[in-house]
């Protein structure tokens, strides 16, 4: 039997968009409360009954998002253009080697009603 388990995370950060067609408002530094979810797909371990230890997942996720919290995202290596899609991809790329079965990372700005989701190609 295959399961999906999820762990939520959040962080506070600022960013700006420097591309020519960006809205003038968003060319200025501004901040958001970001929230996200990590999804792992797999079978329950027979000896434990769970797919993965959610507490351990939380520790791994926290270590990956820690550099994003209370920072200017544009200054984070690999996030020169910190759109939601790029933030989700940045997190996914850093979590994948540490979380076997990682199938999706979603990052959103709840106050704006916006989110982006990146999925593992083999997970669809």
In short:
This protein has 124 residues and is α+β, with helices and mostly antiparallel strands. The chain has helices at residues 24-27, 54-65, 84-95, and strands at 2-15, 30-43, 71-72, 102-109, 114-119.
Report the mean per-residue pLDDT as an integer.
Answer: 91
Named at the architecture level, the CATH assignment is 2-Layer Sandwich
Question: Spatial order of the strands in the main sheet?
Answer: 3-1-2-4-5
Number of helices: 3
Q: If you consult CATH, what is the topology? A: Tetrahydropterin Synthase, Chain A
Number of domains: 1
Give the helix proportion (percent range): 10-25%
Number of strands: 5
Structural class: alpha+beta
Look at the structure and give the CATH class: Alpha Beta
**Unreliable parts:** none
Q: Largest beta sheet, briefly? A: 5 strands, mixed
Tell me the β content: 35-45%
End-to-end separation: 18 Å
Which homologous superfamily in CATH is the superfamily?
Answer: 6-pyruvoyl tetrahydropterin synthase/QueD
Rg, rounded, reads 16 Å
Shape: elongated
Topology as H/E string?
A: EHEHEHEE
